[in-house]
User: Fold these one by one.
Assistant:
Number 1:
Amino acid sequence: MNSMIVGRSTLRCGIINPRIFKFTHLRYSTSTENVKKEEKSPEQAKKEAAELAMQSIKDLGGLFSSSSSDDATQPIETKPVFQNPKLFGSLSLLHQGQVLKELQAKFDSKWTKLTLEDKRLGYYIYFGDWGVREDFKNWNTNEAPYDLPFHIPSKVKTTKPTNTTKINKINPPVILSETPVRTKQFDFKRVDGVSKFFIYLTIFISMLAIYRDKNYGEEFRPAEVIIEDEYENQRQARQARQEQLEHELLKKLDDEKKSSRKWYYLWLK
């Protein structure tokens, strides 16, 4: 009210108040913008809304995907993987290919340059972790594993074998079932609890069946239920009557044929 009074007084005096001028200008400008927005067609409004939505989606995608995609496609430092082969399984397919490429390049060169880390990583990739070989004690040494990954252990006298190279068996031979690690696995005398339960259950049922057959015999055997088909019985009865009627008719015709012969038929015969 004070501003209005001041405005009226200033207008009466012929002096323009800048505060009132700015307020009125802002009010009229916003009203004109609303009029312009209302003048847009529905098709244009939908088009602008769709463009704004697409732009916002692109901005959000850029925030989340740019950094992650760059990290996923960038090469990694492979030294920790060579030091700890168990990290190989958690890598992405792209990074596993990078590690394999570096390892293959080392294997393609001289084998004498291979370090113990390279050998361990190669063994881990191709044969897996120790797995059932949890009782091994020589993981940190250069000794050969007790349980070799092939059936017939053998030895080659040359580092460059050919098709004609003679390969001799290890003497004494290594039998997998006699190694300390595999002794428990190849011990077939020991049976697990589930197998024992089913074996004892089978023996009990067999003994019960033998006792029943020996003491009761056929007295308690299941009674045989004969199911008769009424319609089949009626059909067979009709068929039997029809065959009997046909037989009687043929017999009657034969008798009539015999009785119709002339008296001289016997004389000619």
Note: The chain is about 60% helix and 0% strand.
Number 2:
Amino acid sequence: MTALGDGPTLLYDTGSPVPGPGGIPVTYEQFATGSLPVVGVGVEALPVPRLSSGLKLHGEYQGSGFTEPKYIARRGDGQVVQLSRLLYLVASAIDGVNDIETISHRVSARYGRELSADNVRFLVEEKLDPLGVTVPEGKEEDEVSAPRSDLLLALKGHRIIFNERRAGRIARSLAWLHRPTVVVLMLAAAVAMDVWLFGFFGAVEPVLQVLDQPLLMLVVFALTVASLVFHEFGHASACRYGGARPGCIGCGLFLIWPSMYTDVTDIYRIGRAGRLRTDLGGVYFNVVFMLGMAGAYFATGQQFFLAAVYLGHFEILEQLMPAVRLDGYYILGDLAGVPDLYGKIKPILLSTVPGRRGKAARAEVVGLKKSSRTIITTWVLTMVPLLIGELGYALWNLPRIVATMVRSLTDQVVGTGDAFAGGQVAAALMGVIGCFMLLCPMVGVIYLSLKLGGRVFRAAKRSTADKPTLRVGLCALALLGLGTLSYAWVSGVTPEPLPKRPPIAPILQPGVSTAEPPARHAGVPRPHTSPSDTSAAQPSGAASPGSTATTTPSVSASPSPDASASTSPGASPSKKPTTPAGGTGTTGSASAGPPVGPSDPPDTSPSAPSSPPAPTTDPPTPTESVSATGAPSPATP
């Protein structure tokens, strides 16, 4: 501020015109007689706009898929905002000191077209203020409560594990792994490792060995969590290597699973190659982690390290899926040059609708380059039917899913409590992990259902505002659909709950019976029983006419039903053979066998007990552990 005068009372320049050169014109007579005009009287003070607290202007979005250049600004709350060139020039000219008249001169010189102070006022009040880029006039604080993108498929309830400072140190120490020579050597070593593991050694045997020992299962679980953390280090270090500054590393709930994330929003200001490197940095570090596990196996001979390597392959495949906001989604978005693919679903679908709304949507779609438009349109036409189909399937099977999940959780809790009571600490801890794996999908499904239902209700309310006839028709249609679905649930048209089956991996479900349940339908093969079992199970009543119990003198091993994969959540990814109880040739105890009635004679065989079924070697499916990482951050729109 400039002090005017040298008397005891000082006047401070607040940006208003002052008498003298460059200010209010004065005459010699006014100066000689002391009749100078009073500052601020009769002169309207122009507003001085201010940027919101923590706002950063990142410049032009490199590798954009739009025909017109887009500019990126990041608010203090982490939300990223796309601006046109004119709005970006206005925002960059705002410094909290100059008024809109001075800003209009600066922007006019850079933009190449004349802008008046009223034009700047309109852009600030109608465009930048609603986006949270500038502070509304009359507000003293620099903090703004601008709207945020409430993404349905975004990370929720996230918590910071490594703050920005610690994440930066980790990124600096690991950035050398992204040098081209090192990357080539790592990938070549990974190919050699996979050829040896899958082609010569055998990848499933280490997993089966781990599934028989609760302590080793805990170790592999810890290694899996460590690989998720190292995955995030890959995103942060790639961001640092590309010239951007990584943010914090944290965790939260993504869809129905606990997830980890890395704030790498700063990559918006670097080129497409740097963004793709950051997107792929996570899976690249998964490869590096697996190489470390293979090295640990060669050093110690412990095969549980190879089990962690095997499960790491599934983690990589999961991350590369472009369906939800995982690494594959951001890779596809950066290839197309569009930061938010889900944000383009609405305009692409509306562009097919005739009328004014369709025309506006088509104008937005036309704003994309042809290559980007092709990629995004293909993705939308693939994803929308898939999402609708999965939602319909989930609603149709809702009673089946709920009943199966409740039954599985009840058995899991009871079995885990028995393991704790019996002093089986390792087995009990694995049971706790199994409970956690069952609870996460249940809580996630409830949360997503409420969230999706609320969005549909609000959208219907907005679209039918001031249209009572349309609202009544929509309500009638919703009631009809709900009534039809409820009737299908109650009448048994929908699939019944899954039958109770032995756990695929009893190690995750301690205390849960591994006996094969009785068959409920005639078409299901029943296990053969020995004569001793037959006598115990034979009813007291006489056999019905025309039915005789035959005895087979030949020696035969009764086939044991294979353990089928249970679809209850929390099932571990492998199969375990059922052990015959008491050497009787059955797959369960005598009490677990099906009741034998007069009209259903038992099949007896005085033969030697059957041998247990050979263990299967189907490759297990890994326990899903989502890592919602990386490229652009969960805070980005």
Note: The longest strand covers residues 156-162.
Number 3:
Amino acid sequence: MNLILTSLAFLAGTAGVAVLWSGAWRMTLAQVPLFLAAAAVRQSVLLLLVYGGGQLLSGPAAGIVIAAIVIGWAAYESLNLTVYRFFGVSLLSVLPHLPIKAGDKGGLGSGLRLLRGNMPWLKFSAFIVLAAACLLLTDLQSLITVSATSLGLAGLIQIVLSFRKSSLSASTVEQYFLRLGRRLPNGRLHKSIRKHPQPRAVPQAPPVDTILVILSESAGRQVPSSASALVTLGAQICALGGRSADWIAPTNALTASTCTDISIPCLMTGCAPFRDLATLHAMPTLFDLAKARGMQTLFYTSSLLGWANFDQFFDSAAIDEVFTPKEGGFAIINELSCDDYLIAERFCQTIRVAPCPLLAVVYLNGLHIPFQSNSACAVPDRIGNRLQRASYINETCHGLILDALTDSGRYDNALILCAGDHGEDSRITGTDGENHLARLTQLTDSVIHPMFLVKPPANLPVAERRTLERNADGLVSLLDIAPTVASALDLDPPAGMAFDGQSLFQPIPADRIHITMNTNEWRSWPRSAVMIAQDQARICIDYQDTSHLCTDANGHPFAAQDDRKDRLLAEALKFPAVQKAVSAVFIDKARRGSGDGHGA
């Protein structure tokens, strides 16, 4: 009986460390027993390994081996909790899908930076204490019994769960997806040869000598400014230098994905996330469009590109100068990025002397969790909220860049697009240290709507400006950036190809269908998420509510008589990649409802 109690106490201690981990426990009730079963199995393996080490070795050698086993177990349990904290699934589920691989160029270094910044060392120590206490309370010969008890507990939990049945109800359309099977793709971005855009036979647009795209990682429509939580970052940027009248801010802009490794390639090419990898790699990027018109092309980013194969993706584009923290020798201070201000400052030095015409993309990363809070631009001490401190840095960078455009005489006739690649969970401000990434699987209002601002050229024809203003109230997308740039340059996509986005200088159809998705041919993940939108209607196939297959934009189930669910869901039938993603979510929910959840 004492051995059984020891096993139970060890398992309870392991679970207790997780539950008490600063509010980071993000499992549903269905996941808790699965986590306990998996933890019991790992506990059993730990004790068996310790027993084996004690039997095969003696003296100091046995002590060293046993200590290494305990440290390895504690490290795994700590990393497993870290992954749950960020992603809501287990370490083993995530490992095959991580965007940073040890074999990638710079991958090991990037991985170690992330580990150093996110390893819960206090919990690691707590796990070592738990294991040591269990071993001190149990003699070597009894470890087999304790291990068997842990394994028996895991088996008992699984047996109990096997009797649970899913209570999910499914419409006829939903049943079709449940029958498809769970088959998510597993591709990656790579270097490619892109097709060339086509010049229009008859020029339709006045010449644009400066095109600037400023991308802000994780900048959603609702991100607060540094001045007030009631003023958005987008509104503050528009007001810089008293220029509010110059800007147009669409009110219903959507992202192609709430995952950067999908949203950025889609934004750069105008290629929808449901297209195949070959199509994405054949489409010209913004840089290729500009180069077709003989423009100089610049890409300045505060983020390292050695993840998700972004280095290869951008290496395929016609970029004259790529400037990253590596080129600047800047220290990495926020995940995989340097101080945004240093990048903006260096870009401004370049833009003041660069020859016309040019297209530049500036990619700022400071609004990525855990939010850049310190900078060379001296953030005022009165701003204590990490998110708003990051907003201050972002605003300062925008101000620097816009002033440089003005000083160099480029501002008036420049086409400027400022956008976030997606939003972020509105509950996260950085004040409590919470770094979870619910946006990967929960397509809430705050994550699907990116900040999106457009400053058209002053010489844009009146009719096109009015069209742009009318489009501000319609359903627009980050996919529209590439075709808008192409339109400004009098270019069409390559022969036989088409943009999935639309030029903002042309009317956006009122019946437009937009699809947001978080797994596709170049991004794999244990769980998917899909949103299908038309005008203000939304259907979310995600994990906001695991008791229903589909929900509305607020995570609420549709009423039985509401036909929007099946009408929008039918749109997924048109694209194999969307079918696979929807099917994966449906099947995962059905399994979790019956106790057979994924990724425990």
Note: The mean pLDDT is 85.
Number 4:
Amino acid sequence: MQGCLKFGLFNFKHIPRSPTLEDNTMPDYHVLPAQRLTGAVRVTRPVPPKSVTLTSPALDVMTDLRHIHAAVIELHMTMESANTYMIQRGIRSLLVLDQDQALNGLITATDILGEKPLRFIQERRMKHNEILVSDIMTPLDRLEAIPIEEIHHARVGDVIASLLDTGRQHTLVMENDADGKPAVCGIFSLTQIEKQLGTSIPSTEVAKTFTEIETTLMH
């Protein structure tokens, strides 16, 4: 029998072994050419997000967690550590996970720098550095998320209208994972949208806000 070794009543099939570095036999691979570095050499930076208009696809301003690692923090971490992490990453929100890596809430720069900490200190008689992420985050049962199917045909203006309607700076996007369970797959940030629009978005009446934005973009 070809490809087998026979010993008594047993047949042992020969299975070819993949080459390893120890074999020192890698005929299908070759050394890549390299150049010596001299003079002034720069380090490439990520391409900045592209500019958008109110009618641009909503996906253009979504932080897609299917391609970018989510910025997360655990429940038991301190509020100050969350603030430091946001500053280091240049972001304004963190998804809050429990010990099982399940979503428990969202903490934002507004939560940390707003009135929540002071109110918590007064109510609980505790120090600023003792406040935990879980103390001031927005819990899961108070969060809302937009289905990814809605985002596929939505515009930037639709996202802004949704954010202003809820009075929030961030909103989540959901999809069903491979097991059919809900999973956060994206985040919209009003600050990020402002950067890509090239103008600020006043927290005023929606209709008035769009008029102001459109007027600004035309000049």
Note: DSSP finds eight helices and ten strands in the chain.
